[in-house]
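Would you mind writing out the residues of a protein together with its fold in token form for me to study?
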Amino acid sequence: MKLLQSALLLGLSLLAFAGSANPDTSPKSMVKANPDSTVDKINILAHGFPLKPVPFTDAQGNSHDFAQYRGKIVLINMWATWCPPCVRELPALQRFGKKFDPSKFAFLPISIDQGGKQQVVPFLSSLGMPEFDSFYDPEMALDAIFPLDTIPATFILDGNGTLIAFVRSFVDWDDPKAETLINTFIEKEQQRQTEAHAEVKSS
């Protein structure tokens, strides 16, 4: 598993580096550079990274996987109650997830707390965030596709369920640059879907 994680991290780093070498083709190039912005830590991949289906659960215990969100840009935030920078992100993430059309965007905060819902729900209530709708992966099954040795970690998928961007550190999601970046991804996804539908009609 450690070897697999190392290979994945190396692959993501190389893909991100390749994307930064050609900024004109990257959505990140459309966001004005600001070295003080934590949004600049988000790595845009030059080529998408396919992911295999791995289940996680919602608060009712229902099983989910990322294939259920095909057609949308998906922002996955891996967090835990014992992680101070994760907790620091939560209020801004809650606001951020409400800024986009739910038919085009999905926000999936996934807790890796071993205590699952029984641990997380009281914690969120103590923060004054009882309505924060977290998902759960207490067994860290998602460690099979995401390196989870460092959190908070955020992974962004396109409408095909392909990994297109990631960041493994705190991000200020109230920064307007974050909204601009996601809107750029959404616009590209909508364009891709339009072109795909046009190809089907013409065939």
User: Anything to note?
Assistant: The two ends are 44 Å apart (CA to CA). Residues 176-202 form the longest helix (27 residues). Confidence is low (pLDDT under 50) at residues 1-7, 13-32.
